Amino acid sequence: LAGALSLVARRGIAPAPRTSTGPAVLVRVSLVPGPGVAPAAAVPAADPFAGTQAAGWPEGRAGIALPEREATDGFSPPLVRQGLELVRDFVAGTQLDPEVWRGVRPWAAALSLEPDQYAQLIGALDHPVDDDVHSATGWVTRFDPQQVAVAETKARLSTATTVAETVGGELSVTVDGVFVYAVKAVATDTWTRFVVHRVWEFAFDKPALRHSKLRVRRIVTIAAPQACTADSAAYFRPLFAIPAAAPAAGAAPNTPAATAQDLAGATLPLPAHDPLRLGSGTATVCGTLAVAV
Question: By the 8 A CB rule, do 246 and 216 touch?
Fold first, then answer.
């Protein structure tokens, strides 16, 4: 996934610093096709990934790669392995479950969260809001059932996972994953490929691991192709054709390509929003997709 981004955000009050507890920060970016870039229409249903990089990628939970490192100074190999398996189950349960794609709650993943974040996730699923705390699609991949024939959706993925121990003595796990979904429009034979690139930052302490609980610090999401005007807080709404309207005002197709990893590292400016902080200012941004997916 590559996109030339023109970042636009609504401004809110100054956000309060986040702490090691509290809500997960949900940073979301929609990319609309730029000049000369069209969604992959009429994808062959038999092999919708043919001719793409994703053709050789794995499917399912096994495709969520885990690192070989199995210990840190403060966490034994069994504890690290337990944390990694919790992370893999959470990612698979929120991104790869066909039931979740059509709007069912990811119960197993939700129950692995600390109680306050469990409430945050369930609240976002039931009452999504377009902000950096309460968006359903900031947590899970699910598609508008009025637009997408979810039962026919297929997925391939490529991920990288890293482990570290923080100065504060927490186990930190970062997952950088690119998920390519082949989706079919309702009541037609039109297919397209939809990319969701997410970076998760998870944190564990030893008591949490003893209770098989995890905490999410932040999830950065780039989704494309998707109109910037669509309300994507509740469901992803893939584009099956080039929109009639021009891409986001001020889009700069010649700016460097950006990925979720760039955003996670805060190497790109997010107007009025630091992704490490919380506040009423929305984290929703918009950009242009520079290449077909």
Answer: no
Mean predicted lDDT score pLDDT of the chain:
78
Q: What is residue 166's DSSP assignment? A: -
Give yes or no for residue 94 having a pLDDT over 50: yes
Q: What is the largest CA-CA distance in the chain?
A: 56
Residue of 50, 65, 39, 33 whose CA lies nearest to 174 = 65
Buried b (16+ CB within 10 A) or exposed e, 66-77: beeeeebeebee
Respond yes or no on whether the N-terminal peptide bond of residue 44 is cis (omega within 30° of 0). Answer: no
Rounded CA-CA distance 287/15 in Å is 23
What single DSSP character describes residue 245? S
The CA radius of gyration of the chain, in Å to the nearest whole number, is: 18
DSSP code at position 238: B
Q: Is 35 exposed, middle or buried (0-12, 13-18, 19+ CB in 10 A)?
A: exposed
Better-scored residue on pLDDT, 19 or 228: 228
Is 13 a residue whose pLDDT tops 50? Answer: no
Query: Whole-angstrom Cα distance, residue 2 to residue 289?
Result: 7
Cβ proximity of 25 and 218 under 8 Å: yes
Q: What is the pTM of this model?
A: 0.80
In the numeric block, which tokens belong to residue 252? 């700069």
What pairing do the DSSP bridges indicate for beta strands 191-204 and 257-258?
Answer: unpaired
Q: Which of 106, 129, 146 is closest to 234 using CA atoms?
A: 129
Q: Which residue has the higher pLDDT, 166 or 268?
A: 166
Contact status, residue 260 vs residue 5, Cβ threshold 8 Å: no
Kindly state the percentage of the chain with pLDDT values over 90. Answer: 48
Distance CA 242, CA 231 (A): 17
